[in-house]
Every structure is written in structure tokens, then in C-alpha cells.
Amino acid sequence: MDHILDPVRLKSESGGGTYRSTKTYDHNEGLSCTFRQWRAGQSHCRLLHGYALAFKFVFVARELDERHWCFDFGGLKPVRQWLHEMFDHTLLVAADDPERDRLEELGRLGLADVRVLPAVGCEATARLVYARVNDMVQTSTDGRVWLESVEVREHGGNSALYTCD
């Protein structure tokens, strides 16, 4: 049995460590939303525009579960559902947008499914998603697993990454 590595001995020899696993919801997930970055000045980003967003999550644990997994991806059903509620055919409006009332009126008229957020844009979205998903993950694993980072991709060329220090 010398050829079988003893995980207890490995841990004591290596001084511990961390495990990481990732989950991606790609552009084909259908998370197409519209927003505008009103603070963008003369940039075309100040106008309403949209993307099919993609999300990548990095999970971390110091110990594996009884199945030897960092995180059970089956536990992400509530995360996927929330992502669809927030970003599937929605209009994201910054809370401080000077045109907020007009944009919310689109919702009242049945022309848009409006979400008012503290801020909009890739970076702000990554932070918002991190906060929500990290809470969900830590609750479902009793703190054994936490979220290291969230990457939000607008398309193949642009993304933003949020990590909590």
C-alpha cells in the first residue's frame, strides 16, 4: 500500500493549503441586460446599451467536503435563478442617474423590466454579484467555502474582476 498517498500525511507535510474550483455562466446563458453609464461624459457608454453578460466565480475552501469537493455546483441553483432575475432582459439603472424617473417610467409602462442598483457598469456589477453570491455560498456551506472572486464579462474583449481583500 506504499503507492497510495496518505492525505493526512500530505496535509501535515504541506502545512495545509487551499482548494479552488470555478463555475462559469457563459454569454450563451442568456443574461442580456441594458444599462447606461450616465457618468461616462461624451462616451457612447452614456447611452442605453446592452450585453449578454457572462460570470465566472472562484470558490475557495481549506477543507474538502465528504465527497472530496471544494463546492457542490448543484448548490448553485439559487445563484443561477438570482442571476436570471437580475440580468435576464432587464434594464439596470443607477440609483443616482439623473434620468432615473424617466427610465423607471419605462417599467411602469411595461416597456422594460427595471432594476435600480447602487451603480452600473461591469465593475459595479461584479461587486454587487460578489456580495450576494458570497453570502449564499457561506450560508449554504456553514462558512467552509467562500467566494474569492467574481469576473463579469461584457463580451470577449471586456471584463471586470472583483475580489474582497
Automatic annotation (TrEMBL):
Enzyme class, broadest EC rank: lyase
InterPro entries noted in UniProt: 6-PTP_synth/QueD (IPR007115), 6-PTP_synth/QueD_sf (IPR038418)
EC number of this enzyme: 4.1.2.50
Gene3D superfamilies: 6-pyruvoyl tetrahydropterin synthase/QueD
Pfam family, one: PTPS
Source superkingdom: Bacteria
Signal peptide start-end: none
Gene Ontology MF terms in the entry: 6-carboxytetrahydropterin synthase activity
Involved pathway(s): Purine metabolism; 7-cyano-7-deazaguanine biosynthesis
SUPFAM superfamilies named in the record: Tetrahydrobiopterin biosynthesis enzymes-like (SSF55620)
Catalytic reactions of this protein: 7,8-dihydroneopterin 3'-triphosphate + H2O = 6-carboxy-5,6,7,8-tetrahydropterin + triphosphate + acetaldehyde + 2 H(+)
Family: Belongs to the PTPS family. QueD subfamily.
Protein's job: Catalyzes the conversion of 7,8-dihydroneopterin triphosphate (H2NTP) to 6-carboxy-5,6,7,8-tetrahydropterin (CPH4) and acetaldehyde.
Descriptive protein name: 6-carboxy-5,6,7,8-tetrahydropterin synthase
